[in-house]
Amino acid sequence: PLENVASTTYTSHEGSFVVGALAAYISQTKKVGMLCGVDIPIIKSFLKGFEEGLAYADPAVQLTTEYVSKFPDFSGFGNPQRGYELANQLYEQGVDVIYAAAGSTGNGVIQAASEQQKYVIGVDSDQDYLAPGFVLTSMMKRLDVSVINLCQLFIEGKLTGNTVYEYGYKNGGISITDMKFTKEKIPADILEKIRAIEQKIAVGEIQVTNILTEQQ
């Protein structure tokens, strides 16, 4: 904590809930996978939200989780080749949607999805263009929204140091993409359900577990 430093956090667990619900609705095999970079709290927060989203949409969906590396080995965030190998293994086991929360390792998952003609869900930024038609959507931390908001607060003299500003669905700091490469493949009723879920999270009607807060 420093008086001249303001920090931001993003409710990635909320976005993970939304893509979890989408994965459950879209999966034909009812087998979904999640590739996690490293077994650290923030990634487990992604996982918890994803699990809750799957269960909300379809409790019958089975989730297989793989960690690329274990703490304190952080190589799991930068190993596309291993991501590619693990993704192919999951797809061969009948998984047809994988959520990749593993940094650049996810690029390997996206390549595997394209080759296997299965779905992958991107993370942090809009990765839909990396494999058009096979990146179902991406769970985005909206740094554009937060930076503009923080700059506005600074201009108005309202930005304070030693403060953590949280960005989530309630203030536009988390979203999924517009799915421009996959939207036509998704039934209209499913899109409506996803938008309704996003709105319910934004107004607090759906409460997604934040394990980071619970651990404090």
Describe what you observe in this structure.
The structure is a single chain. With 216 residues, this protein is of the alpha/beta class. It contains 7 helices and 8 strands; from the N terminus they run E-H-E-H-E-H-E-H-E-E-H-E-E-H-H. Strands 3-2-4-5-6-8 form a 6-stranded mixed sheet, with helices on both faces. The chain has a two-stranded parallel ribbon with strand order 1-7. Helix 1 (12-26) packs parallel to helix 2, helix 1 (12-26) runs antiparallel to helix 6 and helix 3 (80-92) packs parallel to helix 4 (105-116). The longest helix is centred in the first third of the chain and has 17 residues, at 41-57. The protein is globular and about 55 Å long. The model has no long low-confidence stretch (mean pLDDT 97).
Describe, in short, the structure shown:
With 216 residues, this protein is an alpha/beta fold.
